[in-house]
Write a structure and sequence with these properties.
Length: 175
């Protein structure tokens, strides 16, 4: 099965402007599958994956709006701009950028069709600076800086789980 790896942020993507913000942490993880995938399919696989179930459980514990399969389907179809704690900031045929409430966190998904029938799949996050260092340089919050290793692990886990779901769905429909 393909594995997610840290990647450069694609030029001209919704995530790229965050790389130009001083003190912002922006990342991208990438993998490819051997078949075409639409953004709608990727959104459904990502937010419907086993790994994302952990976030759904956390939202429930924190008494935040939960994510139902119907919510995932309407987000994927582009029929809603609010999705639990996320708001759609930008969307195109190949990308979606979500903002978490009024906070500094952004989540991004992108599908990039390749000429050979494969699809590159991207997942990334941006955390905008919330404070400044002693010398006045913008920086992200202490908690996120402390948890960056877990964030990288969890980002790969989320993308790998979505890929697994896409492959299972593709295998069923191809049979």
């Amino acid at each position: 099965m393909p594995r997610a790896n840290k990647s450069a942020i694609p030029t001209h993507s919704f995530m790229q402007p965050f790389t130009e913000i001083e003190g912002c942490s922006a990342d991208a993880f990438k993998s490819s599958v051997e078949f075409p995938v639409s953004l709608e399919e990727f959104i459904q696989a990502f937010f419907g994956s086993n790994a994302f179930q952990m976030e759904r459980t956390l939202l429930k514990i924190m008494r935040k709006p939960c994510v139902s399969p119907a919510d995932i389907k309407t987000l994927a179809a582009g029929q809603q701009a609010q999705f639990a704690i996320w708001q759609v900031k930008e969307r195109s045929d190949h990308e979606i950028m979500l903002k978490v409430g009024d906070g500094p966190i952004r989540s991004w998904l992108m599908v990039l069709p390749e000429q050979n029938g494969k699809t590159s799949l991207y997942f990334g996050s941006a955390v905008l600076p919330q404070g400044k260092t002693k010398n006045g340089t913008p920086q992200i919050g202490f908690l996120f800086r402390t948890l960056i290793g877990f964030h990288n692990f969890y980002s790969r886990l989320l993308l790998n789980s979505a890929i697994k779901k896409l492959i299972q769905t593709h295998t069923k429909t191809a049979a």
